[in-house]
Automatic annotation (TrEMBL):
<feature type="binding site">
    <location>
        <position position="328"/>
    </location>
    <ligand>
        <name>S-adenosyl-L-methionine</name>
    </ligand>
</feature>
<feature type="active site" description="Nucleophile">
    <location>
        <position position="401"/>
    </location>
</feature>
<feature type="domain" description="SAM-dependent MTase RsmB/NOP-type">
    <location>
        <begin position="177"/>
        <end position="468"/>
    </location>
</feature>
<dbReference type="GO" id="GO:0008168">
    <property type="term" value="F:methyltransferase activity"/>
</dbReference>
<dbReference type="InterPro" id="IPR049560">
    <property type="entry name" value="MeTrfase_RsmB-F_NOP2_cat"/>
</dbReference>
<dbReference type="GO" id="GO:0032259">
    <property type="term" value="P:methylation"/>
</dbReference>
<keyword id="KW-0949">S-adenosyl-L-methionine</keyword>
<comment type="similarity">
    <text>Belongs to the class I-like SAM-binding methyltransferase superfamily. RsmB/NOP family.</text>
</comment>
<feature type="binding site">
    <location>
        <position position="348"/>
    </location>
    <ligand>
        <name>S-adenosyl-L-methionine</name>
    </ligand>
</feature>
<dbReference type="Pfam" id="PF01029">
    <property type="entry name" value="NusB"/>
</dbReference>
<dbReference type="Pfam" id="PF01189">
    <property type="entry name" value="Methyltr_RsmB-F"/>
</dbReference>
<dbReference type="InterPro" id="IPR023267">
    <property type="entry name" value="RCMT"/>
</dbReference>
<dbReference type="InterPro" id="IPR018314">
    <property type="entry name" value="RsmB/NOL1/NOP2-like_CS"/>
</dbReference>
<dbReference type="InterPro" id="IPR006027">
    <property type="entry name" value="NusB_RsmB_TIM44"/>
</dbReference>
<feature type="binding site">
    <location>
        <position position="302"/>
    </location>
    <ligand>
        <name>S-adenosyl-L-methionine</name>
    </ligand>
</feature>
<keyword id="KW-0808">Transferase</keyword>
<keyword id="KW-0489">Methyltransferase</keyword>
Amino acid sequence: MSPARLVAYDVLRDVEDRDAYANLALPARIRDARLDGRDAALATELVSGALRWRGRYDRIIELAADREASRIDSRTLNVLRLGAHQLLAMRTADHAAVNESVELQRRVGNPAAAGFVNGVLRAIGRASNEDWDDRIAASADGADERLAAQASHPGWVLRALRDALRAEGREAELGELLAADNASPRVSLALLPGADIDAEAAEALSSDVERAEAVLTATGPSPLGLELAGGDPARAIAALDLPRGVARVQDQGSQLAALALSRAREPRAGERWLDLCAGPGGKTAVLAAEAALAGSELRANEVSEHRAELVRRSVEAHADEVEVVSHDGRDDEAYGGAQARFDRILVDAPCSGLGALRRRPEARWRKRPSDLPELTSLQGELLDAAVAHLAPGGLLAYVTCSPHLAETRVAVDRLLRRHPDLRELDARAVLQRVARIPLDLAGDRLSAQLWPHRDGTDAMFVSLIERPA
Ligand SMILES: C[S@@+](CC[C@H](N)C(=O)[O-])C[C@H]1O[C@@H](n2cnc3c(N)ncnc32)[C@H](O)[C@@H]1O
């Protein structure tokens, strides 16, 4: 029995039974099973493939088994998903994929269903991906159901993504976006400003890193950004030999969102900045470095004490300069009192996370449209509280890692209606100025929406709002 397949199966169960995050459960299981590098890579591919493509594979399994997925025992279904991934997306020989799956079923599932697993997987292996696409199309109830199954996205997510693209006049890009969600992104690093080294110099240094099979390139839209072409990010960071916390794993869209606030305009001396929803602290780290350069003070707030601790760790490069507190961002304590005012506030609000589906393969199946109303009210309340603490002339950045219109444009339009004294600034122009390369920002609104398929970033939304002096 292949240990990598057993580990992959166990992680699928962790995700299902314990609501575990695959990216946390997988390394732990790999360690416990003492998998070598090759088996660890195989387990990783199996887990991310089976989770990401779950919608597609379940439809194919239903067609091959002539039975609804909901009527297949969940242990057997996971064995079939892993088998389907080997047959349809990996180079595993068909007989090996089928035999290993039957063995796995005997070991972890109902042995009496081993014949069923054998039959279903043989049927899946007999047809190509193109054939399965045709069969999915022929059995689908409408174009959305077809695309949702083929591209493995829940229907409501697909419609939300299409609405967001349509608002920019780019509905035709939906297929590219879904494909980008289904591809494993490269790891990006941020090299915090103020270090003695910039991204280009770090790339040059990566000749040392190259020997460690972890090649860094100064590519991507963030001026702080490095991309890892392969290998272990921790080794790449260690090989740069920089002070702790200066090089950090971070999506380049997140880097740009933080820079949009700090670089929207020249800071005056002694400004006060606040990161209201800071955990786990990725953007706080960028803001801390920017604040240190600008001579600004930074306060970071995070409602969860555990995540506030992560924020403290994230600013270790500027530990004494950032005040980290833990309160509900709707309460005055988060700001240090009712009278406290800030010159710049980042509201990186809790959101559905639909912009980062490519990084968390299980996330799309966990979100529910019913999560939205609670999130959008919280976003509105956090924004109202932040606005109340914005100094005259102050700047607020509203950021989400979701392109869902209810969390992005609609939230900003509502905020501006509630507070007619506020003025929206041209976030698109700011991002164009800050970015290392020209960004393809579509639509005719002042806010900016980044996209994985266009910008190579998570789908971050950024709006900049000013309280006129
Ligand atoms: C999108 S995440 C922020 C990501 C972070 N800015 C970064 O770049 O690492 C939103 C954060 O808001 C926190 N949060 C949720 N409700 C909150 C509230 N009422 N007040 C303050 N923070 C809250 C969540 O715990 C979560 O850590």
